[in-house]
């Protein structure tokens, strides 16, 4: 019984390590794309959100990008400017960022589907 418990614990530790490594690979993939697109650190955060979620709204973006600022961050309209800049940077590689009034934005991959 002790041997089984030890093996289960070892298996749980390995599964957690795999999860951590997969998260790191995803982060590195995002950074590689950011370099390819020429994204700023803020644009990289926005890009990563779109890739992971597919669709994001203004409040989610604002919280992720500016939520840790003591001054509350810039005006919410800044998100529109960021999105415009991101669109221009990713479009040459076939990605599109579509807006949906009242719902936010969605990433469309070069294959034509949601990313």
TrEMBL record:
Coiled coil regions, renumbered to chain: 4-31
Family annotation (SMART domains): Trans_reg_C
GO terms of biological process kind: phosphorelay signal transduction system; regulation of DNA-templated transcription
Stretches assigned to the OmpR/PhoB-type domain: 34-107
Molecular function (Gene Ontology), one example: DNA binding
UniProt entry keywords in alphabetical sequence: Coiled coil, DNA-binding
Matches recorded under InterPro entries: OmpR/PhoB-type_DNA-bd, Sig_transdc_resp-reg_C-effctor, WH-like_DNA-bd_sf
Protein name: Transcriptional regulator
Species: Martelella mediterranea
